[in-house]
Amino acid sequence: MSKDAVDSAPAAATTQAAQTPADAGDAGYSKDLKARHINMIAIGGAIGTGLFLGAGGRLHNAGPALALAYLVCGVFAFFVVRALGELVLYRPSSGSFVSYAREFLGEKGAYVAGWMYFLNWSTTGIADITAIALYTHYWSMFTSIPQWVLALVALAVVLAVNLISVKIFGEMEFWFAIIKVATLVGFMLIGIFLLATQHDVGGHQPGVSLITDHGGIFPHGMMPVVLVMQGVIFAYAALELVGVAAGETAEPEKVVPRAVNSIMWRVGVFYVGSVVLLALLLPGSVYSADQSPFVTVLSKVGIPAAGDVMNLVVLTAAMSSLNSGLYSTGRILRSMATAGSAPKFTARMNRSQVPYGGILLTCAVCVLGVGLNYLVPSQAFEIVLNVASLGIISTWVIIMVCHMIFVRRAREGQVTRPHFQLKFSPVTEIVTIAFLLVCLGMMWNDPEVGRRTLYLIPLIAVLLVAGWFGVRRRVTANTDRELTDLTK
C-alpha cells in the first residue's frame, strides 16, 4: 500500500501505522539467516563472473584503466547499497526496495521496480545457466553432452536447493563466497610473490614497465574505458541482495551496517587490487575475453591445473549468481503478489517458509533460456546479459529515488532516519542517478549489441503499461481492503 493511501486513512489509524506501514508480503518468513550468512552474501554479491571471467576482455580493450572503472563504479555501487541499508534499518522487509517503492512511490512505482528486477534476474539466470554449461564443457568428459542439457541440470540442482529452506540457501551462499574469496586471496598472494621476485611471466618481467611501455594507463584512449562502464556496473549486480536477505535475519540492525560498510574495502581489495596486479604481471593485450585473466597469468608461469581450478571457481560463481537470483525474485514476487501486482500463485509458501511460487516463475523463464541454449548456443550469453543490464540500472535508480523521498519526509518529520545513513542527500542520490543513466546511454556506442538493447526500452515500457492495466483493479481492491483493515 502506498504512503499516500496510508495518509488518507481516517484518524482512527495510528500514527505509527502511518509512519511504518507493514508489508503483508513479510509475513510467514523464518529468521534463519545468521550474521555470517549476510556477510558472505554481501561478499558473494560483490564478487562474481564479472571479475573472474569478464575482466579478461575488459583488460584487453581498456588496459590498466579498467582498475579506475572498477573503482568509480564501485563507489556508486556502494552509495546504492548504503542507501538501501538505511531503508532496511528504517523498516526491514523481504520485499526490500519493492516494499520501499510501494511506500514512497506508490503502487505503480512498486510495480515497475518489481518487474524490472524480475527482468534483471530472470535474464541473468539464463546467462548463468548458459555460463555453467560453457564452463562445464571445459572438461573433456562433458563435451559430448549438449549445452542445453547441462543448463537444465544446473537449473534443477539450484532450484532444489532454494526450495528446501532459506537456511540451506544461506549455507550454500556462505560456502560459494568462501571459495571465491579464498581463490582471489590465493591468486593475489601468488601475484605479489611474482611481482616482488621479478619472476618471469610468459616472457615478460612484472612491474610498472608493463604499463608504461605498452601505452600507459589509457593505451587505447578514454573511449574504451567509457564503453566498459556498463559491463562493470553489471559486475556489481547482486549487491542489493543484502537488502532482501535482511528480511530473514533476526537482528538486521546489527548485521546490515557491518555488511554494507565492508563492501567498500572489499571492492578496493578484490576488484581494484586484483586488476592492478593483473596489469603489473602481463600487458593488457595478452588477456582475452574467452579466458579468465587469472588462468592466463597462472598458465604463463606453469602452475599445474591452473585452468581446472579457476574454471571450477568461475563455475561456482555462476552457480552462486543463479542461486541468488532464484532466492531474491521469490521474495520480491511474493511482496508484489500480496499487493496484487504479481500472479497470485507467486505469494504461496511451502512448509519450509520458502515462497516457492515466485521461485518457480523465475525458473520457468530460465527454462526458456534452456531453449535459447538449444537454438543459438553461441549467442545465448551475450543476448541476455545486455537485457539484464537494463533491469539492474533501473533497480538502482529506483532505490536512490526512494531514498531521496525518504530523506525528504524525514526532514518534514513524517519518518525518523536511523543512525546508519547515506551522507550528503540529495546530492549523492542525484549524482548516482545521473551516472547510472550515463552508463545506460553509453550502450548506444556499441552498435552490435548495446544499441539493439536500448531499442528494447520502448517495448519493455509498452509491456509494463499493458501489464499495469491488467492488474490495476486487483491492486486497487487490495489497497481498499488494507485501508478498511486500518480503520477497524
Q: What's the CATH class, please?
A: Mainly Alpha
By DSSP, the count of extended strands is 0
In what range is the share of β-strand residues? under 5%
Q: What is the helix fraction of residues, given as a range? A: over 70%
Average pLDDT level: 84
CATH domain topology: Amino acid/polyamine transporter I
Major beta sheet summary: none
Give the distance, in angstroms, between the N- and C-terminal Cα atoms: 17 Å
How does the helix and strand content classify structurally? Answer: mainly alpha
> How many H/I helices?
21
Assigned CATH superfamily: Amino acid/polyamine transporter I
- In the CATH hierarchy, the architecture is Up-down Bundle
Low-pLDDT sequence parts = 1-21
Q: Using only CA atoms, what is the Rg?
A: 23 Å
Tally of separate domains: 1
What series of H and E elements makes up the topology?
Answer: HHHHHHHHHHHHHHHHHHHHH
Q: What does the overall shape look like? A: globular
Family: Belongs to the amino acid-polyamine-organocation (APC) superfamily. Amino acid transporter (AAT) (TC 2.A.3.1) family.
Biased composition (Low complexity): 9-25
Protein name: Amino acid permease
Pfam family, one: AA_permease
